Amino acid sequence: MTLPRRLRMSGAMARKIITGYSNPTIKFVRSLRDKKHRRREERFLAEGLRLLTDAREGGRLPEILLMASGRDEHPLLSDLEQAVVESGGDVIEVPTDILAKVTGKDNPQAVAGVYAEWDTGLSTIDRKAAPIWLVVQAMRDPGNLGTMLRTADAVGAGGLILLDDCADPFSVEAVRASMGAIFTQRLAQARWAEFQEWLRQGEGQLVAASLRDAQPYRGAPYAAPCFVMVGNESRGLPEEYEMACDLRVTMPMKGRADSLNAAVAGAVLAYEVLATLEG
Amino acid sequence: MTLPRRLRMSGAMARKIITGYSNPTIKFVRSLRDKKHRRREERFLAEGLRLLTDAREGGRLPEILLMASGRDEHPLLSDLEQAVVESGGDVIEVPTDILAKVTGKDNPQAVAGVYAEWDTGLSTIDRKAAPIWLVVQAMRDPGNLGTMLRTADAVGAGGLILLDDCADPFSVEAVRASMGAIFTQRLAQARWAEFQEWLRQGEGQLVAASLRDAQPYRGAPYAAPCFVMVGNESRGLPEEYEMACDLRVTMPMKGRADSLNAAVAGAVLAYEVLATLEG
């Protein structure tokens, strides 16, 4: 399923109206819910006026803008439509039920967009651009990935670095859970060895929650740029990764369990780092 | 779909082997993935040896214990089987693929159990039993509910109180995300008016993250028993609820967004309360 040539090539545009689910463009957009297609097309799907507005303010415009035909008018949406047209993108009006099928949501937002993915190499990261960076290793749940991006935004982090085999940050679920932070946070993907090499080429304190030889997470000597790392949802971090950290900290576990949800652990730790760095 | 009489009545038992997916007991168990059936039967499904062991240590045994036929032997599982038999429950061995269909998971745990739900009235809560209680209002995501239970366990809370129309805490997703805390934390469900009346009959500080007339969340005068409340995933708390709080606190939001994932916000706040109460 590739984007129909007619659409891909269109420069000057008028708003198109598509009412059939079997339309090739609709099929193309819907195919982006599937990782295999996303990877091949290097395109992904985001939904909701707020997300699309965040994207635009972050410098990203959709190549295809889908709008539900029964939507309420909104000045931000008119502006967005105008910007998409001016950038040579396509604007398509579809019935609400088609938008629901495209996004896989019963109550779809009134608008969705197809975006080009971007370079997620470590070289795109300027570590001095922010005091905190979040790092996840083999995080498998796209909702958790999106939540980490959202948390990164909230603590003023620079971005999220994905190590090893994580879920796809461009999946519909991750994009949704990020609440727009996918567009405003830097995003990098790397293997552990590559990350280590990159990290040690400059300043940077690698911190992880750990039970091994760890100090209390409150009052630990966090230092910027601080890389806060959490591991896989069920296995946590490999021992080798923990031992490579500059700082291992432990959070109180008062109950029966010895771990928190990974995205929760990352957030509690990141907020502690923020409080320390801000003094 | 009700539990077949033969099974319901069985006291003395031998381990049964069921190989057919259309078997009434299997159909009954599978029906518990559906909220309507759970509500009618007042039974729910939990999976995994760790959860079932937590349940047992929390005083709860399954009425039906399902074990995959190809499972590894484990002393905890043998003990559990013995306990279920002694309590008059049923032990059923099924092929792994049937267990997968029952739990809806591609890689099912080797064991699952059917449990009776319990009374979740506010009157079952002894507020003095713990320094922290978590409260959620209209939380719609069962994964978030389970995560809140898991966080409650970690901070040494007494339990989780669900206000208004929340997701079902006995859903497979919530039980799974709770990592066993569903069995060890107290669980109450109430409407707001009822909760307020109950809360004000005794000691208790109601705290919420808020942007209205709030003080910084660090250094706020938290006091036990502290009820940490978070709201609906998209709407947050109604203004009336926030204004009824004893303490409104605000967390730094350094980025573009003005909110965190609800379960994340609850956890960051709960850990801050814990640190304050422990001085």
UniProtKB/TrEMBL annotation, chains A, B:
Domain RNA 2-O ribose methyltransferase substrate binding: 45-121
Protein name from the UniProt record: tRNA/rRNA methyltransferase
Listed GO biological process terms: methylation; RNA processing
Ranges annotated as spanning the membrane: none
SUPFAM superfamilies attached to this UniProt entry: alpha/beta knot (SSF75217), L30e-like (SSF55315)
A GO cellular-component term linked to this record: cytoplasm
Organism encoding this protein: Novosphingobium nitrogenifigens DSM 19370
Keyword annotations: Methyltransferase, Transferase
InterPro entries tied to this protein: Alpha/beta_knot_MTases, MRM3-like_sub_bind, Ribosomal_eL30-like_sf, rRNA_Methyltransferase, SpoU_MeTrfase, SpoU_subst-bd, tRNA_m1G_MTases_N
Signal peptide: none
Keyword Ribonucleoprotein (UniProt): no
GO MF terms, alphabetically ordered: RNA binding; RNA methyltransferase activity
Alphabetized SMART domains for the sequence: SpoU_sub_bind (SM00967)
Similarity-based family: Belongs to the class IV-like SAM-binding methyltransferase superfamily. RNA methyltransferase TrmH family.
